[in-house]
């Protein structure tokens, strides 16, 4: 499935006048308004929004599709918070099927990848008192002492808000201490939906949307880069999605610190919102496309193939997506626990490269900051001479 060209859309004499005006703005590189964003959700057919998003994607990135090789460490799945949509964490009173890693155990996981060409360690997990400011600054220092070139992408504003509040330090002081300890960038998790009413219903006891944005802004002011997410397809309305993206777009206008936007599909397996039906694949593709159209100041839009499945990930590359992150092994439990399409996700670098090639895109390995490491467009794999192994992928918070 590939959307029509933007010119084909504009040549359609039966096109809704408002949709035509939006298409003309996209062609001219003009910004879509919040009202137009909602209109796209309410009235934009899949082929139409796909055409606009693919036009933007190919203008910026051509046929390039990025991926990276990283590994994911989850210090704990026990958490003081009670997010209704979460299938992953275990409440603090029900720890019997949870885990709480020590610093030495985390460092042992880092050492496990010493002989592999990974460029990033992604660290995120539940919130517990023992994982405090001293714990994480010491952990980051020890990782950097062991492998200085390894990029540390770690912790969401949900974790930082709790850590800094417990330590009685400001966001500014706390983020500066994290940077000095070795933090290189921040993932985008914990954003969910910024609207206060929706947030109160699905994750009311953790940091607010405003606090999430404040912590990212502080990090950007320190010269750091980060990602942003949006949890969609649950109890929110289209206006809440646009309101969420509008706040991200405004912050990006001020700082330019965001790299990538990652829409995250709500999955209803084994959580307190299991009664809420999941949205369709068509809605997934429309959401990727409208995200690409609306977030005109975000360089990249990313899809997670384990969460939506390999085939849909391929389709997303024609609907505004230019990054599908990376290869994965089954050590990252958050996918199957949430009911993802890939219950035991694993793909070698060769398989991932071929997945991208089969839809006519160019697979390019990147580092965390989107510096190109290797263009795999014409690469011929030799399993006897090069690394083809699995590398774990950070999921809902990248």
Brief characterization of the structure:
The chain has helices at residues 6-10, 17-28, 34-43, 46-61, 103-111, 133-146, 157-167, 171-181, 196-203, 209-221, 238-255, 281-294, 305-308, 310-316, 334-338, 349-357; strands spanning 64-68, 70-73, 78-79, 90-91, 120-123, 151-154, 185-186, 225-232, 258-265, 300-301, 323-326, 362-366, 372-375. With 398 residues, the chain is of the alpha/beta class. The chain has a single domain, classed as TIM Barrel.
Explain how this protein is built.
This protein has 398 residues and is α/β, with parallel strands linked by helices. The chain has one domain (59-375): Aldolase class I (TIM Barrel, Alpha-Beta Barrel). Helix content is 42%, strand content 14%. The protein has helices at 6-10, 17-28, 34-43, 46-61, 103-111, 133-146, 157-167, 171-181, 196-203, 209-221, 238-255, 281-294, 305-308, 310-316, 334-338, 349-357; strands at 64-68, 70-73, 78-79, 90-91, 120-123, 151-154, 185-186, 225-232, 258-265, 300-301, 323-326, 362-366, 372-375. The strands form four sheets. The chain has a four-stranded mixed β-sheet, with helices on one face. Helix 11 (238-255) links the parallel strand 8 and strand 9 (258-265). It is globular.
What descriptive keywords fit this protein?
398 residues, TIM Barrel, four-stranded mixed sheet, 42% helix
Major sheet, described briefly? 4 strands, mixed
Order of helices and strands: HHHHEEEEHEHEHHEHHEHEHEHHEHHEE
Trace the largest sheet across and list its strands.
11-1-12-13
Pick out the low-confidence regions.
Answer: 328-340, 384-396
Which class of secondary structure composition applies to the elements? alpha/beta
Label the overall shape: globular
- CA-based gyration radius: 20 Å
Termini separation: 27 Å
CATH architecture classification: Alpha-Beta Barrel
* CATH level 4 superfamily: Aldolase class I
Give the number of DSSP strands.
13
Count of separate structural domains: 1
Number of helices: 16
The percentage helix is: 40-55%
Roughly what fraction of the amino acids lie in strands?
5-15%
Mean pLDDT: 89
CATH topology annotation: TIM Barrel
CATH class reads: Alpha Beta
